[in-house]
Records
---
Amino acid sequence: MFRVLCLFAAFKAGILLDSGMLFPQESSSREVKELNGLWAFRADRSPTRNQGFQRAWYKSRLAETGPVIDIPVPSSYNDVTQDPNLRDFIGWVWYEREVVVPARWISDGKTRVVLRVESAHYYSIVWVNGVKVTEHEGGHLPFEADIDGLLREDPTTTTCRITIAVNNTLDLHTLPPGSIQYMKDRTMYPEGFFVQNTNFDFFNYAGIHRSVLLYTTPKAYVDDITVVTDFLDSTGLVRYNVSIQGATLVTLKVTLIDKDGHCVVSSNDTSGVLKVVDVKLWWPYLMHENPGYLYSLEVRLNAADGTSTYEDVYSLPVGIRTVKVTKNQFLINNKPFYFHGVNKHEDSDIRGKGFDWPLVVKDFNLMKWLGANSFRTSHYPYAEEILQMCDRHGIVVIDESPGVGIKDIRSFENASLTHHLEVMDELVRRDKNHPSVVMWSVANEPAAEMPPAGFYFQMLIKHTKVLDPTRPVTFITDSNYARDKGAPYVDVICVNSYFSWYHDPGHLEVIQIQLNTQFENWYGKYQKPIIQSEYGADAAPGFHSDPPVMFTEEYQKLVLRDYHSVFDQKRKLYVVGELIWNFADFMTTQGVTRMVGNKKGIFTRQRQPKEAAFILKERYWRLANETGRLPLWTKYPCSH
Ligand code: GCB
């Protein structure tokens, strides 16, 4: 108990942002109106990409400024038209939608109306009726603005015009970083030619990628909830803190409700510890017969000011579990947990990185079919709806920041570090309560050998641990242990390696020896548990060759087989997980090493299995049978 109290004190002190970012939900006191569908859209094709600001496109209807097209939200804009210039567009694009706001939201002065964007890549500015309401840097996390004051300026009208300008340009201090290169040689390039350079291996899809919505709360409302869980024997401990905005005089009731709707325990304090007798712990998929058990923490607030009374109700799903790391184990609820999972991307045909429920559900069904118990949100935070699915299904998550491709020494400067720390604030604020999230990953394969990298990662990891001392922190490294400056600070070593692919291409016979050396070096130096956070090989679906050659399905299978044989030796010692690169084929920048994208998926981009998927399925179910306690139906996975 003392441990939970201490952890929580630090957790609370760590959150530097001054407001919460609770997922919008309907309740007896809250309404949600999704603004998804078709928006008017115009790319600013002027040479400076600045015409929209010079001519103040936000001041009138976008269609009055020039030609507009329909673009769906949520979706990347890149792949939905036939225009090659829009596919590769760099700079500002403008979205606009007129919205009818329920009249009572405006007339009822006790109601707060919030405009929220779940994610827009990369930099966004938002106007309502021509008035700027917010701007936000970063392509993968939500931002919002209170707009009821603005709506009430003209209470006679219930329509409002929302304009969102989004810029996908990446520079040395954005996350991920990039740079714009102008080609000035007129014998080689046309006037105004420039390219966006990046050091990451996925297409820089752009636009409004997740939902845009309006939601209401009363003027006095539950702004944030933080829970930290623990257990002692059969008693669960839920340490909680509720923060409130808009009122000082409140009464509060906090009730923990089980899955059957029974009230388990309640309290009237804004913070405290709830004791749960005969607790049902949150367990990962395939580790327990009843994975993903969630309670619901209902927070009911009553407040009053001089003239009005307010009631607000918010229900937070709560999974009670612990995460700990020893020198050679990763423990969930004090039991060794072995990650047998995948790396993913938010990526699909046509939609690009646009959120899409059918895709999300298909991916979960494929992961469960595969016997995967975990994934890593390579290389940026995923939609919160995906984490909610993980909570419910018991799929364990390594939650990664967009710190990918940090390769230029200037991207280690203070401006970058400051922004990276802010992104971690936003990430932890959004995802801190998800039981499925068991570890933070602050970056992927940075140039860790560069002199400033040590300081940069020390700061980043320390900061993340202050934000959340309850979860381990890592960054993802490549296989060169000798030059790594950040590894001393991480809790778990996460290593990516591509033996017989980028090194010694075509030589399957080197895999086992090189992988063994990799593990021995890392463990010998740091004595920390190790996850193989990426390995794999490209396979063009339908390409076959025996004896196997690179890019065939046979070669991909054999790479997996050789990696697995070393994993099987080391997982008895200190290797605590293996995550295949990648779950599915995905789109990349065009280049000579990529044939219509990265083909290391074990599923195609359309989510059909390659032969490697069956190898992995057989292995993951075997691992689950060895290490977990499977529900009855899962003993016969083939029938599902
Ligand atoms: C990596 C990167 C990942 C790439 C992968 C590859 O190390 O982390 O983003 O897609 O290798 O296939 O090259």
---
Amino acid sequence: MSQHDTIAVVDFGGQYAHLIATKVRRLRVLAEIRQPEDPIEAFRKYKGIILSGSPGLLSSGEDSGSTKAIYDLDVPIVGFCFGHQEIAKHYGGRVVNGGREWGRAKLHIVREHPLFEGLAPVEQVFMSHYDSVVSVGEGFEELGYTVLGESEGAGHRFAAIGSDKYRRYGFQYHPEVDDTVHGHQMIANFVLGICGCRPSWTMERYLEEQVERVRAQVGHRSVFLLASGGVDSTVAAKLFALAIGPDRLHLLHVDNGLMRKDESRHVVETLKTLGIGEHLHFVDASEDFVGALRGVTEPEAKRQIIGDTFVDVFEREARRLGIEDHLLGQGTIYPDTIETGGTKRSDTIKTHHNRVPVIARMIQAGRVVEPLAELYKVEVRELGEQLGIPQEMIWRHPFPGPGLAVRCLGPVSRQRLDMLREADAVFVEEIKAAGLYRKMWQSFAVLLPVRSVGVMGDDRTYQYTIALRAVESLDGMTADWVRLPYDLLARASSRIVNEVPGVNRVVYDVSSKPPSTIEWE
Ligand code: XMP
């Protein structure tokens, strides 16, 4: 079908396989995810193959289960981390459990090579592995090694290997993550240089393909979509309207009582201005959600309840509105599926509401349509621009499906939610006033379930704590906390304590992801 030069990314289950695909697509080269056990025929159309990382260990005798016949193909192959070890081993090298190496390291490039074109002799790379390559087979050579740097663990030989004879290469580090400062250049050198791919893939082209796919899947039926007002569901809504026309698109905005301050009102007004609101429905279901959450404190339980309640409310509204024979539209994006264990080989970190069992069953029955499921947030935003969605919508910070429930630690009640809503509004207002809103991935407040002693005027107080969180991230998969100016933090803190009854203490979260996550629950 495709006249594009295409790269296969073999998903060994590392969290980063799809990130690699995104990085390749950013070079305007189409990248497709393949499973290691896919038949060899599936690999014949590619101009190059990238093997991803994996949580598995080759040293313990685990087999990757990959189609070894790919090594008979006459196309360049590069492996990252586990993929690197897999290649080394296949060609007669040795892989041992050499102990953990995690963090930034300095890569010393041993000789000039097209893979390292445009790079300095020493480059910062990011390492995360236990197994190491300790020798390479015939025809292979060491292209780079690392030395003890900032990384936790010893330096390491064979950090980059290659064989120009076989056109097989491997990097022990992860060029796809931002901590490998010039990783994009290394990927470009492989894809554009060694594989000779011509950049021809565009978001415009992606949009055309998705419109076709949606038309084929939906047929003569209609699409019913939960429109939260976030960038993902808004972009999905606009895409559906383009594919099947606004008359067969039903949008439902649910006020679940877990939205931010004035959010539902604002969302409904904005959706109306987008020309897709021919059938825009609104329901105040806050009692359903807040009622169902009463007394629940465990994060995964909250997520499950919210997911189930969404399904109940949705079905009730579909019946009430007489919408039949519809498909469920969802603005699910790639990180929503991977961190939910949505791909074959990844662990569940958090259950996103669009992956609760009943939805999973609907997906299996082909009743769910998710045109953004392969994209990362940056790509969704690009697509949104393509679709003419206003900047203000496109640049809204991501907001989790379970809303403020996962930022209201401990029990969820209307009173606690109101406290959190007010504090959150103050913080975001200050971030916007400082002109920093667009410079970060997310900023929000969290209500902690602990009380501490304070003093206000002459009185002792015993009240709650608000934690503020602001993070930078490219895709939500990894994140760093933002070094906010002290005066901004001071203003936010003093306003929150003064304006939000019940709060006497404000703290700032200085943890990165990993090891923390962005949301607290
Ligand atoms: P974590 O907390 O897992 O979040 O580091 C990564 C990104 O995902 C968002 N997030 C969600 N988005 N449904 C969503 O649509 C969810 O259940 C959900 N949980 C977390 C989070 O805000 C961050 O941007």
---
Amino acid sequence: MTTSPDAVILKPNLYDLAPAALDAALRETVSPSFRAKQIEEWMHTRGVASFDAMTNIPKELRAQLADRFTIEMPAIVEVTPAAPDGSRKYLFELADRQRIEAVYMPMGDRTSVCLSSQAGCAVGCTFCVTGFFGAGRNLTPSEMLGQFFTIVREHALPLEQMNVVFMGMGEPLLNFENVVTTLEVLYRSIAPKRITLSTSGIIPEIERLARLERRPNLAVSINAPDRQRREEIMPITKKYPLEELIAALRRFPAEKGRDLTIEYVLIAGYNDSEKDAVALARLIRGLHAKVNAIPLNEDANLPQWMKRPNDAAIDHFVDTLVNHNVRVTVRRSKGLDIAAACGQLRGRSEARSRLSRQPELAERRVDRPGRIEPAREKRNPVHRERR
Ligand code: SAH
Ligand code: SF4
């Protein structure tokens, strides 16, 4: 729900309903039935945020709808200037004052919108600003659709040219039901193959996703070539071990023309050596997958030692994967100027107050034991010279 606390209780937000439930709710309230279709059209193909925008609906009916329901969306509080690649980050405020981020990314003749699924994240990856700030509540479908449709309306984007990625703040598979409802609404105008959900590897929910009739593309944040290092930077690995995750991905139903995406955040001197690339290639051998290498977005809230590798190191990592027959894309600078990895924009506005309230967080994450530096030299001495 996205309106005032009163409205949360009194008025359901129609964007929280899956298409069949919306249809049922409208048919109970609205007659003749073609009006229900018109209202659904205003919502699902135009993404309007007020009944008054529904200009072909009689004023009286609009007023009746507004008495019973809401279709409000989160409010924009900040939009960053366009990065060199045109991307912009949106900071939204929810009804309970929490802040979340979404990113608009023009990509030639298509446009991607990156959505947040939670107002924080309990998974706690050590390289992630959202993880640093800790758990937050699940977003409702209206809050996820609100991010999407607000950006679509702001830029007057045609829905048939849209891609959607759930790669913003939060772990979408820990908000499974709401994400599935959101997907069902998105499918009304966007093909499942145009939608990608990124997960840190919640195995039981990956299996639930596998059983759905219509599935988005799956991206999985692997980020380390072995279990020990993945446990260090992604503590969720202790619950869902890397080997079991890879086995679950092998069972995930492959669809024609679709690949899994293996996301791999490159951290200088930590997981970016030639040996790491070879180990990654071996780990994912036989999967219908491509790797998306993501050079780390540095941030003051992350451990000091976590740096983005230089371009030569990134190139060498990618070339090694390619030489091992792995398809790779590199996210070079998309949104880097606007602090692209989600959580960073909110992090800038919250960092000081949060840290002064919870200094133990700063100590826990900002400083890393010194043993990492020798490991960096041992693993890839050549990197030191390049830097
Ligand atoms: N929770 C989901 C989706 C949100 S995170 C997941 O983890 O997959 C989306 C992507 O951003 C993940 O691949 C994650 O590894 C990456 N990411 C997080 N922090 C980052 C940072 N500081 N720099 C670069 N990528 C980052
Ligand atoms: Fe959560 Fe994803 Fe960040 Fe990990 S990388 S803390 S799963 S948002």
